[in-house]
Design goal:
With about 425 residues, this protein is α/β, with parallel strands linked by helices. The protein has 11 helices and 19 strands. It folds into 3 domains: about 5-50 and about 210-275 and about 365-415, FAD/NAD(P)-binding domain; about 65-105 and about 275-360, D-Amino Acid Oxidase, Chain A, domain 2 (2-Layer Sandwich), CATH 3.30.9; about 145-200, no CATH class. Helix 2 packs parallel to helix 8 (about 205-220), helix 2 runs parallel beside helix 11 and helix 5 crosses helix 11 (about 390-405). Strands 4, 5, 6, 7, 13, 14, 15, 16 and 17 form a 9-stranded mixed beta sheet that branches. About 35% of the residues lie in helices and about 25% in strands. Bound molecules: flavin-adenine dinucleotide (FAD). Flavin-adenine dinucleotide binds near residues 16, 20, 358, 388 and 390. Flavin-adenine dinucleotide binds next to helix 2, strand 13, strand 16, strand 17 and helix 11.
Length: about 425
């Protein structure tokens, strides 16, 4: 078979080979469809590569909390804050910010949280089925995540959020005061305020997940076309009959657009304006320190996360709105280092093996878009997974498969519709 004909008549063409595209492909093959994945770069080398690896059903509340606007205004132009907006003229960014600000109220926050909770619960059980069921070598660890507070006051104040999550969603954390935390985690600096443990959360190594998914998908006959950018569709009426690429057309019966933060570049072709902004985050990876934390942790006041994996140790986070800027900003990396030194006895920062950035696909309400594109009968969008794309990948793949194969969706897709 020539390489052209291999891609000629795919049943479903998935555009974008991040964790979302890979999981869409997986659940479509579960439903008996044959799939080709196309990526403008290499499979799994976008935002799904060096993230923190949390599969976290505790992350129910979106960023659109009632106090978020004033917090953002205070910190947005400071290079020293975890949230940073690079000053520049960008109507798309300012329109995005305006829409985001309008959602920062209790009612919108809870509406998004209700949907996120349902998605996250389903996603976690699908992950367990996939990873444990198939014995995937991804350093899966179902041990929970600590939300750590530097100040005792902030630790106590979190009790209010814990009460909300536990009463409304049944997701409760176990409190550890400063002394209990020091006993449970000797790798932490002494004198911290305390922590809340979410036992429901899990972690994995994201690049290993992508390798394992590639193996599973290849075993199912999925074809991969890398270094190939899709730049539009050729239509007959409301049917897309081929995806256009510089390497020639790729034909399919259905198409899934899983292009993460790049999705707005296809807006014109999809028939609607999908308001996604790249929210750049960074990670640094090194060998595990001798004195390594037992569990993953988020240092809440500094918005920095650490992941002790079996094969390495990762520190990640920060949120930078700087457009599609590919540079690594040393000031942002410095923030990660400073936070690590503040909380960890042995951050191991002299042994860094990799520094990485990724563009989170940020939406204005914290929810992804999982829906048919308005311009077509057979083009579907699965994009905009914000800070939770790894956590939500399985449920997204299952939902896309349900919708394309016209099975009753296992999750209500209405809140994820396009446009909204
Ligand atoms: C520092 C950091 C830490 C994070 N930690 C976590 C975490 O712990 N847990 C969690 O759940 N989430 C986390 N996230 C978020 C998560 O990484 C993202 O939400 C997720 O990776 C998005 O996946 P995706 O498949 O949509 O995008 P990507 O992985 O970016 O994939 C999109 C793919 O589409 C391809 N593409 C784009 N346009 C085209 C085109 N026109 N034609 C062909 N191909 C195209 C790109 O090359 C890319 O490979 C983190 C993010 C960052 C930055």
């Amino acid at each position: 078979m020539s390489s052209e004909s291999q891609f000629d008549e795919a049943d479903v063409v998935v555009i974008g080979g991040g964790v979302i595209g890979a999981m869409c492909a997986w659940y479509l093959t579960e439903a008996g469809r044959t799939v080709t994945i196309i990526d403008r770069g290499r499979l799994g080398r976008g935002c799904s590569h060096g993230n923190c690896g949390y599969v976290s059903p505790s992350h129910i509340l979106p960023l659109t909390t009632p106090g978020a606007v004033s917090m953002a205004l205070r910190s947005m132009f400071s290079n020293k804050s975890p949230f940073y907006v690079k000053p520049r003229w960008s109507p798309a960014l300012w329109s995005w910010m305006w829409r985001f600000a309008r959602r920062c109220n209790q009612q919108s926050m809870l509406a998004a949280a209700d949907t996120l909770h349902e998605l996250l619960q389903s996603a976690k059980s699908l992950y367990r089925e996939l990873i444990v069921g198939r014995g995937l070598n991804v350093e899966w660890d179902d041990n929970g995540i600590f939300f750590v507070f530097h100040s005792p006051n902030k630790f106590e104040q979190y009790a209010k959020t814990n009460a909300l999550l536990s009463e409304r969603y049944g997701v409760a954390a176990i409190p550890f005061d400063g002394r209990q935390l020091a006993a449970a985690e000797p790798a932490l600096q002494p004198g911290l305020g305390g922590a809340w443990l979410y036992e429901c959360d899990a972690q994995l190594r994201p690049d290993k997940l992508m390798c394992e998914m590639r193996r599973l998908l290849a075993d199912r006959g999925v074809a991969f076309k890398e270094n190939c950018e899709v730049n539009g569709f050729v239509a007959e009426g409301r049917q897309a009959i081929q995806a256009s690429t510089a390497d020639g057309p790729i034909r399919g019966r259905d198409y899934v657009v899983a292009t993460g933060a790049w999705t707005p570049f296809l807006n014109r072709h999809l028939g609607c304006r999908i308001p996604i902004q790249p929210g750049k985050g960074y990670s640094i990876t090194m060998p595990r320190p001798e004195l390594c934390p037992n569990r993953s942790m988020i240092f809440e006041e500094h918005r920095v996360a650490i992941t002790p994996l079996r094969s390495c140790f990762r520190i990640g986070s920060t949120m930078e709105f700087a457009g599609y800027d590919t540079s690594i900003n040393p000031k942002r990396l410095e923030l990660l280092r400073e936070a690590a030194c503040l909380y960890l006895r042995e951050p191991n920062l002299d042994a860094v093996e990799d520094t990485w950035y990724g563009w989170r696909p940020m939406t204005t309400d914290g929810l992804p878009y999982i829906d048919r594109a308005p311009a077509f009968e057979n083009v579907w969008v699965a994009a905009g997974h914000n800070m939770l794309g790894l956590s939500l990948a399985t449920v997204t793949g299952q939902l896309i498969s349900d919708l394309i194969t016209r099975r009753p969706p296992h999750i209500n897709p209405h809140p994820l519709r396009l446009p909204r």
